[in-house]
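note to self: the first set is below, dont mix up w the second
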Amino acid sequence: MTTPKIRPEIRKVATDPDWYQPYRISQAITANGLIYVSGQAGFTEDGRTVPGGFLEQGRQAFRNVERVLAQAGADLGDVIKVGIFVRDMAANLAHVITLREEFLREPYPADTLLEVSALAQPDWQIEVEVIAVESNR
């Protein structure tokens, strides 16, 4: 006798406007008490890349992560894993550390930092994805 698979409740999380809908991507998905936030870059709600270079794009990427987490009822304090993708590691490692100091707190989440050759838009310099626990607040 086979045991039936129990599928967890999977719920889409989206802000208004949902800037990822045209690409058939969820901004985030919740399942089994976790929130999986898709990569967020340094763009505004209308899809324009913020001016000002790496740090400003990074700050906007983290603000976009915060906005998606808020829609799921969580915040950056609920983050347990971060993935940061950068176009130029040598030039921007110190900036990544600055962003971590500005947006993350103890206990710092687990983190993966990768240099990539390209992101979805040619002017993007950084993209941030996270996994968070659903908050009981």
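second set (the one i keep forgetting abt)
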Amino acid sequence: MATIEECREALDRLSDNLARAEGDVRGATALDRSLSCHITDLDRTFTGRLDGGRIRVGAVAPGPPPTKAEIRLAMSGDDLVALVAGELKFAKAWASGRVRLEAGFRDLLRLKSLL
């Protein structure tokens, strides 16, 4: 099972990857939205912002997200680490229910290029 530190490192790597992205991916992440990522097996939630193509984590708290972020993710720590490492494809994980993504309709349309 992935640790909180490994999950934080994975989010930092994901942020770096998004910042270096080009084309449709870069456009999809060029949002300014509140973000939460609930690590279900550790019952911890990272909160922050997706801002200018980077994920800026502000805090980690026990339990599910304390407030409703504009973009909400939920998954196990192992799945987060595997997604960022390229060992798990987002579309497959999302379709099978291993990863949950909730956002407004317009944001989902923009983020679909990440799938």
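remember for set 2: The CA atoms of residues 91 and 115 lie 5 Å apart.
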